[in-house]
Amino acid sequence: MIYRMLALNIDGTLLQSNGKLHKSTKEAIEYVQQKGIYVTLVTSRSFPSARKVARALKLRSLLVSHQGAYIASAQEKPFFVKRISEDITYDTVRFLEGFPCQIRLVHEQFSLANKQKINNDLLVKTVFTTGDPAFYSQQFVDSVSESLTENPVSPPKIEVYFEEEEDLHDSVKALKSMFTEIELIEINPVRLDIVPAGISKLSGLIFLCDHLGISQSEMVVIGDSKDDITMIEAAGLGVAMGNAPYEVKKAADWITRSENEHGVTYMVKEHFRKQQPIDFLKKMKIIKK
């Protein structure tokens, strides 16, 4: 099979556990691009945060961010955006404020969160910076709903970090019965992502593939999280990181090494070194478009 796209998750896939990109990973991505393969990032992170990683990798491609709700190569000219309405955002936040949790509205230009003290060890490890503070405003308020009363927001995504696993389960059950306008994505036992209905990493990736004229069978997806499963299953070659949980590995066609063992680099060397450059394949009429 000839692959024309490489789609990569960021955290736990491209980045090591210390949050850094290894030199070998940068070299591997450069190698794939030189073969004419379209490389994109598909992430739950905000667009500014995804773009920062893309710049380190020298990517100029469209990035699928905010769990698929925001696709762009430049913030000024988004290719695709879908938002949670102001009313649904407010009602959702009001409900969630009944739980001990941090609620974070993740807009492409800023984030707005409540001042929730983090006590859960898993929660501390889960929360990450959604963008570079130098270019991305991060505001913390006593009450998100009160802030929304004065300044309504229609974000592509809401992140919720719970203290207790039981609270996440209870809130998901209730929100599903209350709203049809949102999708609920459980990232781990204490983190919930909320996006507009119909949005997922897979929907964003398919939208991008349709635009580029690339079929799902021609894409390689590498991921490590539960929210990567659907796109791993849909890809021509779905790859799970060695550090991924069992259910992600079960969904994959191939399992590479962990993020700290340079899993992306290892996968690229194993699967792309024998593939001829895309331009050559087009010249030989092996690829017609």
Characterize the structure shown.
This protein has 289 residues and is of the alpha/beta class. It folds into 2 domains: 5-80 and 199-283, Rossmann fold (3-Layer(aba) Sandwich), CATH 3.40.50; 86-196, Hypothetical Protein, Haloacid Dehalogenase-like Hydrolase, Chain: A, domain 2 (2-Layer Sandwich), CATH 3.30.1240.10. It is built from 12 helices and 14 strands. A 6-stranded mixed β-sheet has the order 8-7-6-9-11-10, with helices on one face. A 5-stranded parallel β-sheet has the order 2-1-12-13-14. A 3-stranded antiparallel β-sheet has the order 3-4-5, with helices on both faces. α4 packs antiparallel against α6. The longest helix has 14 residues, at 165-178. The two termini are 16 Å apart. The model is unreliable at 123-131 (pLDDT under 50).
Q: Nutshell version of this structure?
A:
This protein has 289 residues and is α/β, with parallel strands linked by helices. Helices cover 36% and strands 21% of the residues.
**Average pLDDT number:** 91
Q: What is the strand content?
A: 15-25%
Number of domains: 2
Number of DSSP strand runs: 14
CATH superfamily of the largest domain: HAD superfamily/HAD-like
Instruction: Return residue spans where pLDDT drops below 50 for at least 5 consecutive residues.
Output: 123-131
Going by helix content, strand content and strand pairing, the class is alpha/beta
| Topology pattern, helix = H, strand = E | EHHEHEEEHEEHEHEHEEHEHEHEHH
Assign the CATH class of the largest domain.
Answer: Alpha Beta
Task: Give me the CATH fold name of the largest domain.
Answer: Rossmann fold
Largest sheet: 6 strands, mixed
Number of helices: 12
